[in-house]
Amino acid sequence: MLDLDLDHFHPRAVYIVTNSVGVAAALAGAPGLEVTLTGGTLRGSLELFGPLAEQSLRNLYVDTAFIGVDGLTARHGLTTYNQVEAYINRIMIGQARRAIVVVDHTKIGRVMMALIAPVRDVVALVTDAAAPRAHLDELRAARGAWRVACATLRPRSQGSARRPRSRRA
User: Fold this and answer.
1) By C-alpha distance, which of 46, 102, 24 is closest to 69?
2) Is the domain of 67 the same as that of 56?
3) Looking at the domain assignment, is residue 163 inside a domain?
4) What is the pLDDT of residue 91?
5) Any domain includes 166
6) pLDDT tens figures, 42-54
7) Do 78 and 149 lie in a common domain?
8) 124 CB burial (10 A radius; 0-12, 13-18, 19+)
9) pTM here?
């Protein structure tokens, strides 16, 4: 689940390109953001795929691609359960100057069916503080100079405003 707290996020100008209708809806109206959806055929996961999505992504270049995955290991790289999602993510990585993988600790050490990319194709990992140290050490060893950021997730207070939630980024 992607739970975005945009109350304290005030960039000057950030351009977001996504194939996720949920991410686009969560970011809609946020100050300083311009959101572009790829177009394509809508999956039940609220992600767009197919020739329109592919062509849209191939015509754009981005500074940073943030890629969510369902599995991550040093040996098998970034993986997901869906081949179409893997293909779209590979295009995103190829059109980006750099790629950052975003994954919660439950997906580190797991291998899913479809390869997205080897770990050498990403420059950093963002995960939560419960990520298994042994797997993080293996990933660092496989990637070399790789930044790993572990976030501490805290529940929101009862009175805080909530934005729409999305299944995946």
Assistant:
1) 102
2) no
3) no
4) 97
5) no
6) 999 999 999 999 9
7) yes
8) middle
9) 0.79
